[in-house]
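[Automated response] Your request has been received and processed.

Submitted sequence:
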Amino acid sequence: MRKTLFSALFLLTMAAGGQSAAGPFDGVWNTTMSCEAKGSALGYTWRFTSTIANNILHGERGDAGQPGYLALDGRINRDGSAKLTASGIVASTQYAHGPLVSTGEQYSYDVKSHFTATEGEGDRSTGLGIYGRPCHYVFAKQAPPAAKP
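Generated structure:
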C-alpha cells in the first residue's frame, strides 16, 4: 500500500512537472517579415516580436482590428517545422497585391517555417500566385534576461 501511494505521488509530480516544463523553442523572438514588390504593389519590411510558449507561437504587429494589423500564430513541432498562419488587415492598397484589394480588407495566408533553438525562417505560401506574393520571415531568439543576484 505504502509503495503504491509513493508511486502514485511520484507519477503525479512528474506529470505536473512535465506540464510546466518549457518547450525547446520557448521564449521571445525578434521577427522580421519582408515582402517583395509584385506587380504594382510595393515591397515592405515589418519588424515585431513573437512569443513561443509551450511550442505555440504568437506574434502581433499594429493594433488589433485596425488597418496594418498582422497576427502570426501556430504550433512548432518537435523537429522545428511549423505551419504558421498570418492574418491581418490591409493598411494601404499601395502595398497590397491583388486585383480587388481595398484598405481595411482582411487577409490570411500560411507560412511554412522551420526553427532551431535560436533561429528560424519561413516563407509565405503564394498559392497560384494570383493573390499571393513572396514574403520571407526571419526569427531570432532573444537571450533570456540575466538572473539578478
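Summary generated for your ticket: Strands lie at 27-35, 44-53, 56-61, 70-75, 81-89, 106-115, 119-124, 135-141. The chain has one domain: 22-141.
If you did not submit this request, please reply to this message.
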